[in-house]
Amino acid sequence: MARYILFRLLQAIPVLLGTTFLIYFMVFAMPGDPLLALFGDKTPNPALLEQLREQYHLNEPFFVQYLYYLGGIFRFDFGVSYSGQPVTEILAQTFPVTIRLAILALLFEMIAGILIGLVSGIRKGGIFDASALVVSLILISLPIFVTAFLGQYFLGIALGWFRPTVGAGAPIQDLILPALVLASISFAQIVRLTRSSVIETKNLDFVRTAYSKGLSSKRIVPVHILRNSLIPVVTYLGTDFGVLLVGATVTEGIFNVPGVGRTLYQAILKGEGPTVVSFVTVMVLIYLVVNLLVDLLYAVLDPRIRYAK
Amino acid sequence: MPNSTQKPSPGHFVAPLEETPLVAIDSVKTDGKPSNLWIDAWRDLRGRPMFWISSVIILLVVVVALFPGLFTQTAPNDNCELSNSNAGPSEGHILGFTRQGCDVFARIIYGTSTSLSVGIIVTVLVFTLGILFGAFAGFYGGWIDAVLSRAGDIFFSIPYILAAVVIMSVFSSNRNVWVISLAIGIFAWPATARVLRSEILRVKNADYVTAATAIGVKRFNILWKHVLPNSIAPVIVITTISLASAIVAEATLSFLGVGLPSSVMSWGNDIGQAQTTLRQAPQVLIYPSLALSLTVLAFIMLGETVRDALDPKARALR
């Protein structure tokens, strides 16, 4: 196990360097002088400009600049937003809200997704199964902003079950609708994954043995079938996190949830390039870490992974 | 008993041919039509209503994209009257008007080609890059695999919509269908490459590959003529689904305002512009969303039915 963890950690290093380099490369290709943008319409003092250039290492060659940027990342320094607030400070304010939203969404997609997938798989071919398949197919096909607007209009405005936008302080009851929207695509994927995994497991020999021993379905379904069907779902959660990050950007923007996603959403809308880049960098780093954790969790769950190498 | 000493005839031990399972082998029709994975898959697809429904929708989308003039007499931008702003349906304008007083139906019809062209360009790009990286990594292995797979990991680690947001922020002045397709495609290929790589790893140890090596076929020809055609099936499936994802990505970027400029007619742009009047005129937002979702649904449905048809294991799961 220790060897696997070490191997996986070493593998993460080139990926980390590569992704940050790619992002920085894209920024370097950005036309226009980032400093001139700070001054707006005014013509800046050349001496001041030179001093700022020196301060932000803009006179150095591209590769040296990248190293400074990388150094900043390791010190959790992601630069300053357009309003002059350090990105880390904005993160500290907005991150708890996003975490709350993400946990709500994850809870929903896992509990409801696994349950519905399980029932559908056990009763394959029935009416419940057929409707679960149709509904999940539709949910997968709806782009997240469409789901968000449909939810906002029908559940929020027309029926009035939820507040269409989130109020100050982002109380939990206001976050339910955005969390449902955020979870929708992953929920549908989990239903389908669990379903096919359950169908595959329930025909295996050990399940037949359990039935022939005289165990009841009440015990076989949750203990023998469900537990052995969950591994693909766990792996899915890792890749799903990327969907969740992009989804959070759109959902938080539409529902006005004061989280990391909305900050990125507004920076994109206003065309604040450097802020967008800082937040995308942070999100990619989070994504990398989460995927690393999921891989390790996967190794804990499935011994075949940890002894493979 | 006189017969007890008599040896049984050989026929006593061998069952007549008609009664053995060997009949099954002997009765293979050699003069019948040859069959392969694709013929079997087509036979399976023909019987699926999902296949026909999705094909008809996709065909309709393609025809609308190529000949928008057949479906509406209204030019999408010329006859916009501000007095019609957010008005409901009327004679000749079955879906009502946008905030600028343009015909919603005409804009949806003329926006089709944008979505479809982005989808197709991205798909061609993803297919090409995915095959190049996946095939070489899987077939040659060793350091080639290590380099190509790590490169894939790096591109895979940046969610492609976020990457496209950064690229599109860079190209703020020069956005068109080609730039946005490139921005999406350049980060979307690793999934395809991974699928192909693992499929090739499975196929390359098959007997026919060993046989080809034994008779001295060049490595590259083995890859091109034997391994690739036998491992392409899952790539076709993921490509169909990635066409749907590309259409969603374009709409999302346009919706966020970093996609196509507002002068280009695109479903994403229309949805983004309609969001401010969601309360007063929900239909302006709902109809383009419907067109978008239906197109995406059709491609996903097609991908899934083709996957089921190509994979006997999935067939059993139905």
From TrEMBL, chain A:
<feature type="transmembrane region" description="Helical">
    <location>
        <begin position="132"/>
        <end position="155"/>
    </location>
</feature>
<keyword id="KW-1003">Cell membrane</keyword>
<feature type="transmembrane region" description="Helical">
    <location>
        <begin position="175"/>
        <end position="194"/>
    </location>
</feature>
<dbReference type="Pfam" id="PF00528">
    <property type="entry name" value="BPD_transp_1"/>
</dbReference>
<feature type="transmembrane region" description="Helical">
    <location>
        <begin position="99"/>
        <end position="120"/>
    </location>
</feature>
<dbReference type="InterPro" id="IPR000515">
    <property type="entry name" value="MetI-like"/>
</dbReference>
<protein>
    <submittedName>
        <fullName>Oligopeptide transport system permease protein</fullName>
    </submittedName>
</protein>
<keyword id="KW-0472">Membrane</keyword>
<feature type="transmembrane region" description="Helical">
    <location>
        <begin position="233"/>
        <end position="255"/>
    </location>
</feature>
<dbReference type="InterPro" id="IPR035906">
    <property type="entry name" value="MetI-like_sf"/>
</dbReference>
<dbReference type="Pfam" id="PF19300">
    <property type="entry name" value="BPD_transp_1_N"/>
</dbReference>
<dbReference type="GO" id="GO:0005886">
    <property type="term" value="C:plasma membrane"/>
</dbReference>
<feature type="domain" description="ABC transmembrane type-1">
    <location>
        <begin position="95"/>
        <end position="298"/>
    </location>
</feature>
<comment type="similarity">
    <text>Belongs to the binding-protein-dependent transport system permease family.</text>
</comment>
<dbReference type="GO" id="GO:0055085">
    <property type="term" value="P:transmembrane transport"/>
</dbReference>
<keyword id="KW-0813">Transport</keyword>
<feature type="transmembrane region" description="Helical">
    <location>
        <begin position="12"/>
        <end position="30"/>
    </location>
</feature>
<keyword id="KW-1133">Transmembrane helix</keyword>
<feature type="transmembrane region" description="Helical">
    <location>
        <begin position="275"/>
        <end position="301"/>
    </location>
</feature>
<dbReference type="InterPro" id="IPR045621">
    <property type="entry name" value="BPD_transp_1_N"/>
</dbReference>
<keyword id="KW-0812">Transmembrane</keyword>
UniProtKB/TrEMBL annotation, chain B:
<feature type="transmembrane region" description="Helical">
    <location>
        <begin position="232"/>
        <end position="256"/>
    </location>
</feature>
<keyword id="KW-0813">Transport</keyword>
<feature type="transmembrane region" description="Helical">
    <location>
        <begin position="51"/>
        <end position="71"/>
    </location>
</feature>
<keyword id="KW-1133">Transmembrane helix</keyword>
<comment type="similarity">
    <text>Belongs to the binding-protein-dependent transport system permease family.</text>
</comment>
<dbReference type="InterPro" id="IPR000515">
    <property type="entry name" value="MetI-like"/>
</dbReference>
<keyword id="KW-1003">Cell membrane</keyword>
<feature type="transmembrane region" description="Helical">
    <location>
        <begin position="285"/>
        <end position="303"/>
    </location>
</feature>
<dbReference type="InterPro" id="IPR035906">
    <property type="entry name" value="MetI-like_sf"/>
</dbReference>
<protein>
    <submittedName>
        <fullName>Oligopeptide transport system permease protein</fullName>
    </submittedName>
</protein>
<keyword id="KW-0812">Transmembrane</keyword>
<dbReference type="GO" id="GO:0005886">
    <property type="term" value="C:plasma membrane"/>
</dbReference>
<dbReference type="InterPro" id="IPR050366">
    <property type="entry name" value="BP-dependent_transpt_permease"/>
</dbReference>
<feature type="transmembrane region" description="Helical">
    <location>
        <begin position="154"/>
        <end position="171"/>
    </location>
</feature>
<dbReference type="InterPro" id="IPR025966">
    <property type="entry name" value="OppC_N"/>
</dbReference>
<dbReference type="Pfam" id="PF12911">
    <property type="entry name" value="OppC_N"/>
</dbReference>
<feature type="transmembrane region" description="Helical">
    <location>
        <begin position="120"/>
        <end position="142"/>
    </location>
</feature>
<dbReference type="GO" id="GO:0055085">
    <property type="term" value="P:transmembrane transport"/>
</dbReference>
<feature type="domain" description="ABC transmembrane type-1">
    <location>
        <begin position="112"/>
        <end position="303"/>
    </location>
</feature>
<feature type="transmembrane region" description="Helical">
    <location>
        <begin position="177"/>
        <end position="196"/>
    </location>
</feature>
<keyword id="KW-0472">Membrane</keyword>
<dbReference type="Pfam" id="PF00528">
    <property type="entry name" value="BPD_transp_1"/>
</dbReference>
